[in-house]
Amino acid sequence: MSKDLLRFKKDQKYIFFDFETCGLNLGSLRNKPWQLAFITIENGKIKEKKDYWLKWENLVVSDGAAKVTGCTQSKYDKKAVDPKEPLECFESYLYDPSYLKVGHNILGFDVYMHGLCRRLMGLKPDYSFLPQSIDTLALSRSVQGDIEFDQEEDFILWQYKVLSLRKIKGKNRLIDLCKKYDIDFDPQKLHDALYDIEKNYEVFKKLLWEVEI
């Protein structure tokens, strides 16, 4: 077994992140990301936690979003801050190649929400961090589908391949993975970005012993 596998690299640094948004449209500027949370991991421990609510003009929290996420309009109006500083803080880690970027469904959603944030601020999307990204949804699907990663493959392409395979059956929501790995969780707190990524870090540590990366 290779000692280069991530499970053995105790000094590897990570940033786990998650966006909560008004909807699921990946390209519409109306789908404003209103919450950005991330944690940084160093030497196997959480070093920093950040939870930002992003202030956008004319953002209206729908009843449906409020029900799922617990974000009400009054709560948003009270907590939201100008997105410039949160984005700069986040990107100081995101574009640091010493950090691996991890999240659940980030390759299908959150990386585009980051790009949307940049567009809303008049910046061009910059996906140069993608080669250092790990999607726990792809890892969990690879376990279910018994799809091994060949170390000679491009890791990002392999993840997208796994995510695109319709033949893989099973439940891969974060709540399902917490149940599978006996990780305590509060269903009422899921869909809060900071809570989600803390639980996903626990899931990720389990997945590293099932996937050879």
Q: Explain this structure to me?
A:
The protein has 213 residues and is α/β, with parallel strands linked by helices. The protein has a single domain, classed as 2-Layer Sandwich (Nucleotidyltransferase, domain 5), CATH 3.30.420. It contains 8 helices and 5 strands, in the order βββαααβαβαααα. It has helices spanning 63-69, 73-79, 84-94, 106-120, 136-144, 155-164, 174-180, 193-207; strands at 13-21, 33-42, 45-53, 99-103, 133-135. Helix 5 (136-144) crosses helix 6 (155-164) and helix 5 packs across helix 8 (193-207). The protein is globular and about 50 Å long. The relative contact order is 0.17.
List keywords for this structure.
213 residues; alpha/beta; Nucleotidyltransferase, domain 5; 5-stranded mixed beta sheet; 8 helices; 17% strand; globular
Can you lay out the helices and strands and say which pair or pack?
Elements: E1 13-21, E2 33-42, E3 45-53, H1 63-69, H2 73-79, H3 84-94, E4 99-103, H4 106-120, E5 133-135, H5 136-144, H6 155-164, H7 174-180, H8 193-207
Parallel strand pairs: 1-4, 4-5
Antiparallel strand pairs: 1-2, 2-3
